[in-house]
From TrEMBL:
Protein name as it appears in the record: Protein G12
Keyword Transmembrane recorded: no
Lineage per the UniProt record: Eukaryota, Metazoa, Ecdysozoa, Arthropoda, Hexapoda
Origin: domain of life: Eukaryota
Signal peptide: 1-20
Keyword annotations from UniProtKB, A to Z: Signal
Organism: Apis cerana cerana (Oriental honeybee)
The keyword Ribosomal protein belongs to this UniProt entry's keyword annotation: no
One Pfam family recorded for the sequence: Ins_allergen_rp
């Protein structure tokens, strides 16, 4: 399996330079981010240079490249891609945040094979809650938190903005909203559609120090 993976690596390297390769992500990008840590440890520029030399000067390596374009190898790849187990693994990787279909189709393009089409998938829930689940999966929360702390310390205008959101004026505005019938109707509709209002209330309290008595 490792040797087969190396052959695929060669195919990708020959068709596209590997310098500073970015693992393709999708959705949350979680799996892609983890794999990127391993890719970052591999000296891709040096490997690409070696491939370039062997491609020009080594007869045995040139035979390998011919084999990669042969009908025999194309049939092997097509056979593997036809296995339900292979598709199952691809779909898992796709859901976990690695754009595995993009990688496979890079190889297929090099081999002049038909592209594989990923299944159309949505969040297990639908409606507003399903929409929010899909969008929330794309938000890099840790990076946003780190950026927030950094700007709070190093940007006077941002710190002033946050202080304004923490001010008595902001609390007064929230109190008036909570006294509004229209706003409470809006909250009821949001809650009925699965919006996590308790999380909103918690964030208002923990981040801005605001109390929202109408949110429960």
């Amino acid at each position: 399996m490792m040797k087969f993976a190396l052959v695929i690596l060669v195919a990708l390297a020959v068709s596209n330079p590997l310098e500073a390769y970015k693992v393709p992500s999708i959705g949350s990008g979680a799996l892609a981010n983890e794999l990127q840590k391993f890719i970052d440890l591999i000296p891709l520029e040096k490997i690409n240079a070696i491939i370039s030399v062997y491609k020009k000067e080594d007869a045995e390596f040139q035979e390998l490249l011919k084999y990669l374009q042969s009908s025999e190898f194309k049939l092997l790849v097509a056979e593997i891609e036809g296995f339900p187990e292979f598709i199952d693994i691809l779909n898992y990787e796709q859901r976990a945040g690695l754009d595995a279909y993009y990688l496979v189709n890079e190889v297929n393009e090099y081999l002049h094979l038909s592209k594989l089409t990923p299944p159309f998938s949505r969040a297990k829930t639908s409606g507003i809650r399903g929409f929010l689940d899909e969008v929330e999966a794309l938000i890099p929360l840790d990076k946003l938190k780190n950026l927030y702390q950094d700007r709070l310390k190093n940007s006077a205008v941002f710190a002033e903005f946050i202080n304004k959101l923490k001010s008595p004026t902001a609390q007064s505005l929230l109190n008036k909203l909570c006294a509004s019938k229209n706003f409470n109707n809006f909250l009821s509709k949001a809650k009925s559609h699965g919006v996590h209002l308790d999380v909103v209330k918690k964030h208002l309290k923990n981040v801005l120090g605001l109390n929202a008595p109408c949110i429960n």
